[in-house]
Amino acid sequence: GTEPHPDTVAVYERARSEARAREALADPGDADFRGVQLPRPFTTLVGRDRHIREVRDLLDRSRLVTLIGPGGVGKTRLAIGASEEVADGFADGVRFVDLAPLTEPNMLAGWVIGALGAPEAGGKPALRRLSDRLRDRAVLLVLDNCEHLIEACASFCAAVLADCAHCRVLATSRQPLGIMGEALYRVPPLDVPCRTGTRDATHELAAGEAMRYDGVRLFAERARLVASGFSVTDSNAGVVADICRQMDGLPLGIELAASRVRAMSLPEIASRLSAHYGLTMNGIRGVPERHHSIKAAIRWSYDLLDGRRQALLRGLSVFAGGFDLADAEAVCAERRSEPTSGGSPDDIAVLLTELVDQSLVVYEPLGDNDRYSLLETVRAYARDRLVEAGEEGVMRERHARHFLRYAAECAGPQAQGAMDWYGKVARNHDNIRAALDWLCESGLTEEALQLGAAMAFYWTAFGYRDEGRARLRAILNLPRNGEDDPVIADVLLRLGSMEWAQGDAEASRESCSRAHEIYRKLGNGRGIAAALLNLGSAALSLDRTEEARRLFEDAITASRLVGRPSTLAHALLGLGELQRHVGEFQKAEETYGLAREAAVEAGDSVIEALCTADLGTLALQRGDCDAARDLLCSALDVEPLGATDWLVCLLLPTVAGIELAQGRPERSAVLLGAAEAARLRTNTAVQRADLNVLIRCTDRAREACGDRTFAESFERGRALSVGEALGFAREGALALS
């Protein structure tokens, strides 16, 4: 076999000499073996009480427990904490063996013997001597850092546990040992504040709220060690939370960042984390080299991979926000003309599972929608290796083209009416953003136009209108060969829809007029009908009632000519809004009914729900609360709408009107507040047909409550989440139906 490295032999001989010295002083009865021999950390363990209890419970049930997780997650500290917790249950003590310095697998048993201080035994094999030593002892053996000796550690544990009935092993590794009877405990990062939706919630945290997160508490405690006056305050809680989040909740990364508080401001620390693993433990002694930085911790794991697994990890770094197996296969499977990725489609599933086992990829089982992701620190390291390998351009193009196809399929006319359309887009929104960024950076205008057009409805419906408008404008500003392109018209039309939804009717009119002109030149009847519809909506918002009526009627005619029931439903809905606005209630009811029939024919449950909701609002305006309540309940039951700000903006003012009509003005005020907050979050304008209803409901609720009670109830509503607001709505008037 291969000769051991001289440095390894020297370390081994030193350990053996120390063991002999201990043996010379030991009592022949081996009293020295008993007791707890664990490292004594210099700092306290933060945020791991629950995890210690869970590991303790596993040790009660299994003789081999392996703590697995990525580098820097705190496996060693948790192992020490759990060992201290269970030490009293082992009559012959606890022994800790650090395997990180050992590089020769065939020296493992001897290394453990040296750490235990076992005496020489007349030339017996090391493993036999160790088994003789432990056979009748109730001892917990802690093996730390097994990942680089995984095969040797697996064989060693299997042999020792088979021979020593009262021995138990607690191992730490970045991947499982993979032997029978092994209980795995995946060590999670510490909990940290996270981003929600399009807004970064970390910057809205008060100090008390931030300190509920273990990651923030760890940062605060470690920062106080180097800057005694440090504390988390309302003014700095947001940036502290952001630092912890950027470090993925990894204790090592949080401690690295906190150690810089003595010499850097918090914003400076946060800005340096843009490289994610740029901070180091330089100047701090007694820290293993692999823990000098997050980069070193990840490199330790990366270097243990073979070439194919390294290539796959590099390829996975192009994903943003997670992916599923089909995504990984589509982007990372080898193509004969592009041999830069991780393997054939059949290999990807196997290799991906191995990267999960080695704690470099996070797996989240979600039933039919299982997801994978990389910690941001791992992704950044792998992305650097991707650039070094000269593979970034190829892999980002594969990623972009895959998600262009994905978005086009999701946004197809059949898919939009399906119950899971919104969830599919939401799951990969970050990937689609990354794809669109690359297409724009690469000057692929046609593809960027296609992706922007596909995503526009999602951005409109789910409160990403500011982002959507900015992205569509940026796409329209890219260099292109000509203007008379149906995809350009599609993007202009969708931009106009967003502008109208946000109350910018003049901008909407300009965008839709340009789209209409292109469609007209191309003889595109479908596009002409849709553009006339949007122009009618803009005209109504600008109070050009007769112009709007003519445009809606033209849109209805054009939709019928081209056989587009979905566009017809929209156009009829717009005409119904106009009729309701001018007090033509009977005509509005008939038009809404026709719109709902067209929506059913189109299989578009969202438009059907909008028609139903508007019929409910019309019923309320006519004084029929029972009909209004029934119709609103029906609209709320449409699954594709989900719990969104858009839904709250749309429906809650009418529910508030029902509450008011039934003598509950305070509940009405709460719902009005929730609707107002949703409009502000999404920058959604109140449309003209609904404005008078909203103003009248607000004035009457304030008059019935009194100014103070109304203001308190309104603010209570503003504080509700979307789910809480919809739950509140269902508890009152809608619960009676």
The span between the termini is 80 Å
Looking at the structure, what is the overall shape? elongated
Count of distinct strands: 8
Gyration radius over CA: 32 Å
Largest sheet: 6 strands, parallel
Q: Would you write up a description of this structure?
A:
The longest helix has 20 residues, at 6-25. The strands form 2 sheets. This protein has a 6-stranded parallel β-sheet with strand order 1-3-4-5-2-6, sandwiched between helices. It has a two-stranded antiparallel ribbon with strand order 7-8. The relative contact order is 0.05. By secondary structure, it is mainly alpha-helical. 61% of the residues lie in helices and 5% in strands. Helix 1 (6-25) runs parallel beside helix 4 (108-116) and helix 22 (486-501) packs antiparallel against helix 23. The N and C termini lie far apart (80 Å). Strand 7 and strand 8 form a beta hairpin.
Summarize the entry for a quick read.
This protein has 737 residues and is mainly α. It contains 34 helices and eight strands. The strands form two sheets. Strands 1-3-4-5-2-6 form a six-stranded parallel β-sheet, with helices on both faces.
Structural key phrases:
single chain; 737 residues; mainly alpha; six-stranded parallel sheet; two-stranded antiparallel ribbon; 34 helices; 5% strand
Q: Which helices and strands appear, and what pairs or packs with what?
A:
Elements: H1 6-25, E1 36-37, H2 49-61, E2 64-68, H3 75-86, E3 94-98, H4 108-116, H5 126-134, E4 140-144, H6 150-163, E5 168-173, E6 182-186, H7 207-210, H8 214-226, H9 237-246, H10 251-258, H11 266-272, H12 294-302, H13 307-316, H14 325-332, H15 345-357, E7 362-364, E8 371-373, H16 376-388, H17 392-410, H18 421-427, H19 429-441, H20 445-461, H21 465-476, H22 486-501, H23 505-522, H24 525-541, H25 545-562, H26 565-581, H27 585-602, H28 605-621, H29 625-636, H30 645-661, H31 665-682, H32 688-705, H33 707-718, H34 722-731
Parallel strand pairs: 1-3, 2-5, 2-6, 3-4, 4-5
Antiparallel strand pairs: 7-8
